[in-house]
UniProtKB/TrEMBL annotation:
Chain ranges of the CinA KH domain: 90-163
PANTHER family: NICOTINAMIDE-NUCLEOTIDE AMIDOHYDROLASE PNCC, NMN AMIDOHYDROLASE-LIKE PROTEIN YFAY
UniProt xrefs under Pfam families: CinA, CinA_KH
InterPro entries xrefs: CinA (IPR050101), CinA-like_C (IPR036653), CinA_C (IPR008136), CinA_KH (IPR041424), MoaB/Mog-like_dom_sf (IPR036425)
Occurrences of domain CinA C-terminal (ranges): 181-319
Name the record gives this protein: CinA C-terminal domain-containing protein
Length: 335
């Protein structure tokens, strides 16, 4: 019925077989694909989940059906003889390692233990997550303790922190722009990231309100033809240099007439000289003469270097816009 109603498909015998589940089991509705999953509860402590093997379908069902079920089940479940309410959140950071986070928040970790808030850290290239789990017999207290530790951690981390739970870095960029209360615009000139930054921005609905467009100038030829970069600058400093990065940002800002402009150039590897793989220059230009150039050395393989660079420069842009907003707020407050 679900497939017929939502996808207007004729139900064949083969398709029907995918909906069969064992007796005394509970169906798990497919979000993607046509194969159902199911769960079997053996007793109060053991549950077996059976979900499709196609990776995309499996991930969707696990994220939207299995995890919420388990989280609901954990709430009010007996823990060491007491009833506990459990509240969870995930803090998202970039351009900072697990060990650096541990050092910055070690005092907060000690405080969290005293109020029954557990802290865990997981790291992926360009994204480190801090997972908080608060437990309390009272739901209001669990929420209060969770928020208290969240605030202390985010204060310690400063601009390394960019969002919570499932938000994208581009979602928070959009939010920062909305807080300004004006129609800020952004343009991008990408070399090493090959369009990845533009792709991340456009993953956020409504990004067309602030993102004017980008130019992927991967080769020197495209830098000259599309961005009008001075050939003498390329010859003198090389494509991966502060000078070329700055010129890229200036040119793309002029082309799109945007408030802010980003540019990125670097060596993602592996064909560059070993010592230079991971070297990336990022530039941000903005109103009132705002100009910042960053020299970064990102670890990892080709894809990881590209993603780290994209995350980094988008977060720096978000931070720059947020700081502009807070300066505006402080100024308004004094008046």
């Amino acid at each position: 019925k679900f497939i017929r109603k939502s996808r207007d498909k004729k139900i064949t015998e083969r398709l029907l077989r995918q909906s069969y589940i064992p007796e005394n089991s509970f169906p798990i509705k497919p979000g993607l694909g046509s194969a159902s999953g199911f769960r079997i509860e053996l007793d109060n402590r053991q549950i077996i989940f059976c979900i499709p093997g196609v990776p995309k379908e499996m991930k969707s069902m696990f994220e939207y059906e299995v995890i919420p079920f388990l989280e609901d089940r954990k709430r009010n479940k007996s823990l060491r003889g007491d009833k506990f309410e459990i509240r969870k959140s995930t803090l998202l950071t970039t351009d900072i390692s697990e060990t650096e986070i541990e050092e910055k928040i070690k005092e907060v970790v000690s405080e969290a233990k005293k109020i029954n808030v557990e802290i865990g850290i997981t790291a992926d290239p360009g994204l480190t997550k801090i997972i908080l789990v608060a437990k309390s017999p009272d739901s209001a207290k669990a929420n209060k303790n969770l928020k208290r530790i969240e605030e202390k951690i985010t204060t310690k981390l400063g601009n390394y922190f960019y969002g919570k739970d499932d938000t994208l870095i581009s979602d928070n960029l959009k939010e920062a722009i909305a807080k300004i209360g004006s129609r800020l615009t952004i343009s991008i000139a990408e070399s090493v990231t090959g369009g990845l930054i533009s792709s991340i921005i456009t993953d956020t609905p409504g990004s067309s309100r602030f993102f004017l467009g980008g130019i992927v100038s991967y080769s020197n030829y495209s830098k000259i033809k599309l961005l009008d970069i001075d050939e003498n600058i390329l010859d003198k400093y090389g494509a991966v240099s502060r000078e070329v990065c700055l010129s890229m940002a200036r040119k793309v800002r002029k082309i799109f007439n945007s408030d802010y402009a980003l540019s990125v150039t670097g060596f993602a590897g592996p064909e560059a000289e070993y010592k230079r793989v991971g070297l990336v220059y990022c530039c941000i230009l903005g109103p009132d003469g705002y100009e910042k150039i960053f020299e970064k050395n990102f670890p990892g393989n080709r894809c990881e270097v590209k993603f780290r660079a994209a995350q980094f420069v988008l977060n720096e842009l978000r931070a720059a816009i947020s700081e502009k907003y807070y300066r505006k707020e402080r100024f308004s407050g004094r008046r």
